[in-house]
Amino acid sequence: MLKQPTVEVAFSSSEEEAIYERADAELASKIQEVAEAACGSRNAEDLVHTNWDWYPTKSRSVELDEQVFSPALVQQLIQLLEGTYADWRIYLNVYKSLTRNSQDFGVACLSKSRIIIQQSLYERLSASA
Asked: Residue 126 pLDDT > 80, yes or no?
């Protein structure tokens, strides 16, 4: 597991919470679009799973089949972390296969200023570059 300091957003009003929830859903949709585009002609439902639950943590997570994981995808996801999302994180859980009961291949935490990545994923990115 990639340990990062926990972020807990406190809301001063229900309106502030609703604004956060909309921003969170917008980022989740953008992540889904980027990940689905990385699937190309392959069936995105078999290769990408976005977690639609929201938490006040300034983070989103997505599960990917290793076929979709690439340096280009990582760069495109980091590019989403602008403006409202500049201090957010995107967690990637990469599996050998999402369609079969497969074990984890690796995890990564993406932020605007750094990437924390498990060795197995780093080796995959290095080999792809």
From this structure: no
Q: Are 66 and 96 in contact (CB under 8 A)?
A: yes
- Residues whose CB falls within 8 Å of the CB of residue 128, separated by 6 or more in sequence, listed in order: 70, 71
Number of neighbours of residue 77 by Cβ within 10 angstroms: 21
* Across 14-18, 71-75, 85-89, 105-109, least confident range: 105-109
Query: Which residues fall within 8 angstroms of residue 5, CB to CB, at 6 or more apart?
Result: none
> What's the pLDDT tens digit per position in 21-48?
999 999 999 999 999 999 999 989 899 9
117: helix, strand or coil = strand
